[in-house]
Write the structure tokens for this entry.
Amino acid sequence: MKWTKILFSVLMALFIGSASQMALGLNGLAVAGSLLAAGAVLPYVDPSGVVLRAITVEIWQSHIEEEIFKDNSFMRKSHNADEYVLGGKVVHIPQSGGSGNVVKNRTSLPATVRVREDNDIVYVLDAFTTDPVRIPNVETKELTYDKRNSVLGEDRDKLVQTTAEATIFNWVSSPVYNDYGATSLPAGAKFLTTGASTPATAPMTGNRLAATLVDLQRLQGYFRSINKWIEGKMHILLPPQMLLEMFPADSVITATYMAQVTEAERRMGVIVKAQGFNIYSRSTVLTSQANGTLRAPGEAGAVTDGLCALAWYEESVELALGGVDAFEQLKAPTFYGDIYSFEVRIGGRARRTGYEGIAVLRQATPA
């Protein structure tokens, strides 16, 4: 055993002992001696005296969760169901049986007593896992840049993208689970754009009608008509093309709408505020077939498809995060390197079976 390894272990044990004494009032020397006796410090040093290139699992787990909601802040504009996750896998949503009647100047007594028949909706969280990635031992020693963080950063970004797309689709479509059949957003909650004819976004071909501020006004009217309009809690997520169509950069109206956004709201991802909506944008939202059927993430599309925007009342959708895990195997003997992977358990859906409070604006094809 090299003296550098021993010295490093002693110093680390003394540091931990000192910290324990200051924070917990423990005997620092006793703590350090216990660590050295148990060999708790030595595993962090390889035979060459160099600290092993391990990831800090807790930091990466926290970092991934942070990135999910930083890059997709709209996801937190929903009912937080984290506390209702059972065993990190299943969520129960209480489903109200509805209110009773209200009678003016009741004369018939005794009044009929009703029983509210409540039930619940159950859904299972999806587990998103990255492919395990191997970083050869030789590369951790010879590369001039930190390949480990570079590779894991790419995996993290893909994980964040995938979970966000799945969440959006879950809010407009619920899968089969036990006694629950598959459901999807009703036709009455799907609206067509009404603007001028503009070229479609590749790989789609032909033209589509542009999205307009009038379309936002129509959505507002729809939510008001079903009593799902609450000021300050209405949101819409636009794909980039719709954002550019509604809010061109050279428009004075756009500047006015942007000026209404506070700095705190801007940090939360709000780009503009118009027609009572907090407006966000991301690279992909939803895609619909020509007949209005919404496509699932990763599903093969067609040139006749159209882009969609998602509008919702904050309490009409739900999101549950079951947990984030980071896995590592250092110096895997059969792989001659380090192995890493991540897992995120997350799920969501509409909070009511009728999808009240959710709507889609999809591109129309010119007649």
